[in-house]
Amino acid sequence: MSKANEEKTYHEHEWMVRPCMIYKAEYDDCTSIRARFNQYFIFGETLDCNQWKTDYLNCYEWEKHKSEKAYDELIMSEKQRRKERLRAHYQNDVWEKREKPPENWNAPLPEWMQKEFENSYLHIRNQEIKQGKENSQLDSRCTIL
């Protein structure tokens, strides 16, 4: 196996590494006064934000010095974060998971729904884009009340 292929397979999880400044921003946000107040209100205590700081430092070491140890720790942290985020999804035993989409998932909408959709902003704008119009006939100021 060539060295290029070996290095590519060794860093197969590199896509999980976020830009380093995101880790720093997450740490700064987690330790802000507003976040601390919210954490105390929701959980009754403040959360430990040190993992974000550790991830930032590991990311910096990986980006600047290609430290394998920092890379491994960062990937392990990202996997743990992902596992925690998806834990409820995998523990869900209420809904039956699909193997494939329903047979008619892309069937046309009922006629009454298509008729209502004809005058909607999204439909008109979609038609304009398909025709290549850059300036919309619709007023660009949209207010949602």
From TrEMBL:
<comment type="similarity">
    <text>Belongs to the UPF0545 family.</text>
</comment>
<protein>
    <recommendedName>
        <fullName>Synaptic plasticity regulator PANTS</fullName>
    </recommendedName>
</protein>
<dbReference type="InterPro" id="IPR021475">
    <property type="entry name" value="Pants/Emi1-like"/>
</dbReference>
<dbReference type="GO" id="GO:0043083">
    <property type="term" value="C:synaptic cleft"/>
</dbReference>
<dbReference type="Pfam" id="PF11326">
    <property type="entry name" value="PANTS-like"/>
</dbReference>
